[in-house]
């Protein structure tokens, strides 16, 4: 994929052990096709720009060198989090159409009074999600499995002193529940991981500590039960 967005030189060889198909794309033709639709063109340009930025920033020790097979932090979800807010909104609205279609079909059928209340609840849920996407409160995408994911940017800092002691957060003033976790910041959208790390440089605490940054992803529990799909919180 990197060759679509950069002047990329492939090295080495590859051998297929089973019957396969190879799809070749002409980068210039792809860009010309995407340019026929403004929103799609804008998304593609933003995607390519951030993909290229990840390539040139992927150097040890921050990340592994980019290869033909992998460029770190370039999954679709990770790149969407770096896009402009209006593009995130467009992507979110498109993803939510997968929830609205079953409701349109159900509305055309006869429903009982009991199912009417359930139907109304689903409509309200989707309306709330549409509002979250429109206001920028949530970034929602469709995943390859056909489900929906709410993306949450999370940057974690490991602050270690020369003697090996590590700074951890034991709790917060506004609550009594202990946490015991590494310091982190949420919601750093619009930045690739390396840029987000630079935003946290003030955590060096006057040079008394060595700071290393980690960015990771995991799937949280489903937070919404909606027709046909569930929305999962995904931290990146």
Q: How are the SSEs placed, and which strands pair?
A:
Elements: H1 2-5, H2 27-34, H3 38-57, H4 76-80, H5 85-107, H6 113-135, E1 139-142, E2 148-152, E3 154-160, E4 166-167, E5 184-186, H7 193-199, E6 210-214, E7 218-226, E8 229-235
Parallel strand pairs: 2-8
Antiparallel strand pairs: 1-2, 3-4, 3-5, 3-6, 7-8
Helix pairs in contact: 5-6
The count of strands amounts to 8
Q: What distance lies between the first and last C-alpha atoms, to the nearest angstrom?
A: 21 Å
Overall mean pLDDT score?
76
Number of helices: 7
Number of domain modules: 3
Strand ordering within the main sheet? 1-2-8-7
Classify the secondary structure makeup into a structural class: alpha+beta
Strand content of the residues, in percent? 15-25%
Largest sheet: 4 strands, mixed
What is the helix/strand order? HHHHHHEEEEEHEEE
Net shape: globular
The helical percent reads: 25-40%
Unreliable stretches: 216-229
How would you describe this protein?
With 236 residues, this protein is α+β, with helices and mostly antiparallel strands. It folds into three domains: 2-9 and 19-74, no CATH class; 87-150 and 222-235; 152-218, no CATH class. The chain has helices at 2-5, 27-34, 38-57, 76-80, 85-107, 113-135, 193-199, and strands at residues 139-142, 148-152, 154-160, 166-167, 184-186, 210-214, 218-226, 229-235. The longest helix is centred in the middle third of the chain and has 23 residues, at 85-107.
